[in-house]
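Teaching note: in complex prediction, the entire set of molecules is handled at once rather than each chain in isolation. The prompt given to students was simply: 'Predict the structure of this complex.' The entities are:
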Amino acid sequence: MKRATTHRALRAGFTALAVLPAYVALPGFATTRAFAQPASPAGTTVTPPSVITHVDAQYPPSAREARKHDDVMLALTVDADGHVSKVDVLQSGGADLDEAAVIAARQWTFVPAKKNGKSLASRIRVPFHFAPPAPPPELVEPVAKPHDDAVLEPHAASTESDGAAAEKGSTTAEVRVTGRPNPPSRGVSDFRVSRPLLTAAPHGSGADLLATAPGVYIAHPEGEAIAQRIYLRGFDADHGQDVELRVAGIPMNQPSHIHGQGYADLNLVIPETVRQIRVIEGVYDPRQGDFAVAGSASYDLGVEERRSRVKLTYGSFDTKRIVAVWAPSDQPEETFGAATFRQTEGFGNGTRGGISGGAVGQYRFNLPYDVAAVLHLGAYAARSNIAGVVRRDDIEAGRLGLYDAYADPSARAQSAGTSRTQLGLTLDRHASEDGSHTSAALWVTLASFRSRTNFTGFTERSRFEPTWVGRGDLIEQSNDDFGLGGSTSYSSARFEPSKQIRAHYELGSEVSTHRVRQAQNLLQSPQNETWDMRDDAELKMTDVGVFGDAHVDISRFVRVKAGARADLLFFDIDDKLGNFIPAFQKKNHIPGFRRTASGIAFGPRATVDAHPTTWLRVSASYGEGYRSPQARQLDEGEQAPFAKVKSYEVGVTVRDGDALSLSAVAYETDLSYDLAFSPQEGRLARIGPTTRRGLVGHVLANPADWATVSLSATYVNATLDSPPAATPANPSPAFVSGQSLPYVPPLLVRSDVALTRTAGRAFGKSLNWKAGYGTTFLSSRPLPYGQTSQPVFLFDVAASVRRDWLEVSFDAMNLLDSRYADTEYAFVSNWQSTAVPSRIPARHVSAGAPRTLLASVTLYL
Amino acid sequence: MNVSPLTAFALLALTACIDASQAPIAYDAVAVARGNGVAAAGAWSITLTRADVALGPFYFCAAASGSSTLCESSVAEVRGVTVVNALASTPQFLGRVHGFSGAIQSVSYDLGISWFDTQRAATPAPALPGGHSIQLEGVAKRGAVSVTFRADIDVVPQFQGQNAISTAPAKAAVQPANGRLAIVLEPAAWLKQVDFDAVALTGERDLVIAPGSSAHNAILVGLKNLSPITFAWSESQDPVATP
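The expected output is the structure of the full assembly:
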């Protein structure tokens, strides 16, 4: 119906535009989106009604002359059959608008409210917004099915009298309906990837879901217990250094992590519980904080289908997975529990085996004073072997296969173990009387990390005993992080400083503190004897951020969103190996270097949106963001040298309702200093300032009710502007000025197609069929020393059929069995594969997984 | 001309991949003998009748110091070990140089005996003449006095993970057009520091120079300091003799 409305508007122009902040996209989603709540004082549960069909209000002709532009708030009484039996006007927009709203609302139908599973009448509030018909029409936020729309978010009656009424068996329960918080778009590159696309192609992990966003590629070069590697719009974000990642609002990036700045392990995410991912490519939202350099991604967790289920999977490489999801029907989507265990031998010659498990649970409940709360608990642990890298010349010479690992004990000792536990509480209060919004959040995280990796074979020399050499470059890294943080924000009601201008603002703060213990050593396998110590430090870091944001409609066609953010970062570093005494130097002090540093990062962000017609949106954005420095690199009293990023973009979106959306973006990103992987240290090293200029094209289409298609192409010219000069310690730097940024694919093309049909019957029940696929194309990636990697094309397919409580599904990843390098490097190594070692930087590959077939059975309870 | 968006993307991507920096190149390395096996050392005239020299591996570095501890990454290398006749009048093929274009300032290398990171002791390459880096034979004459000599020279790395010649100058700006690296050696000159006067005083006329002897050490001084191997890059594509 929504689609039909939009088409009508496109053809003939609007006679009215009723933009519902609480707009339900499709009837089919309405039921699953309902947020039920409320427990009465006696503990009984009332499920609010959810919309099945809605009808837009027609803008009354009588209001045209005055060009009225107003809101109407209605209270609807929904009877036990789901029909609107009574309508009261709570907030009038004038008689004509009130009448139009009432006429429309009376045509709405609902799944009735339920108390303990029994239907009952209820009372809800529904806002209508009227804008005068005009070509061009009123500015609206672009919608991206399904979650870009605000959705009906019923809150339970929270007063005692309401609860008492329910308890007493009253036939009418007061249920208030408000819009679910849905941050406004910050430009054309603000993508919301919804469940149909997230599930179109198979995804092995929560991190892989990100690949559905334009310009994103996810790799797993270091196995299952080390965080994914992310490429986003020309950035090799490694394990998260350039992408701010949040899950259920909790920051995932770990500052100053030993394995890489901003390390963020998304393996905690159970794919079945992801409702939507918001990806902002660029830094245009004042809410984006540390590590939002290439952009940010936020996972919204929820289970839409309110049935519990158990899914059993078995497939290639003796992979076994079980996932259980608990999603009771009388609870909102945000309330669920999920647990998973996974075990695999991994591909190759038995060096990629791993075991992992995790659990995520959320509970949404109401508090007094109309406060809605979500309690989140997540935990994840994994251990896996790592095959490491293989020299390409060894592969080409037949000394080793692509999926093999070196037989040396130092190579076979590679492994990683990690765990993370996080607890979060989010509080939201929407003031229905004026539309303001107050929120607060608190979170605690505890994460451990220990890895043993060897990229270079036998090239390292001990700093403590310089004659110790050739014992294997097995780098052990450990990082224990305790994090505590939270946020508060207030979003004002909309106000009108003048007749043509409407505005509202938001002020917020965000704080976090981390206590980190980290170390890096060299081990000699197989005894894992320590033969060199590289780092041993304790870090205390605190980030205090504040932001302000204003949205101003300066005309009916143009909206400006502008704000700024400032972060104060404080570092206290106890570097136990600082002031190191080389072996040749007489000892005249005790090693150790304790220091503090701090700095303030400030950045404005702004977006100008223009909607000259209903189907066209043009936007321009500018923003400055930052990445915090690695604490151990700071000197005493140093003004923390943030990596500053400046993002520019202009974009255009052409939209035909929900049927088709075409977006094109041209962007530039300037970064004051970049980081690249250093195999000698097994972590990131500075490579100087970089510039990226690129184009993004994105098509999102729903050609039929049963089909969703997404296609994106991202081209980037990423260059290194001023790499570090050669030094005695690094006489042959891998990078030269003006060269293409290593590891970044200039062209990334991604498509996802999801098909869903109900067809046929079996044993009296209809069959629901799903099929989908995802394709990924990576062009040749530049490597250090002027080399390039091979292009990659991947084709993943998923298919399933479901009959009521039983679903059988089949996933095929890399169906064409492409032999590809998940990640490719160029550096010096010595794996003793030749009698005389080479010191020329050579290409090394971490193999991508071959064809992987998985079959699953899901039982819905 | 119609160009589809996909084609345009592909062309742009291709453009982005083209870098002029540090192009990988490979070219020949040859050994060039100088001096015709003859040298003068004070009153002594030295003439070689045999000069078998093991050359390699060579690691070229962009920095002024080619020491393996300071130059972990080479810009060019010759990994093979080749025994050449250092009396030959024509260049002898040593192998291919693999690396990148760009500046070279230094080199570290072995003469057949290496002590790589993973080796417990310095180890001669299998192809070495008699297991030694260098074998020289010849005669030194001072008037009527003649001393024949045979020298077995071992040029051994001092430390594990280092080359025997840990660093030496080798300056070049290597371009893809460079066709040849000439490794120039003058073995007769290495004997200039040998004290043939002292040998003559002993009455010995058939001198055997073995590792550890003072004459052996004098030859090492000549090899490493006084008449070291030099390196020259040229565009020559002339055929070379295979040792």
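Point out the following to students. Chain A has two domains: 2-179, 219-860. Chain A is about 5% helix and 50% strand.
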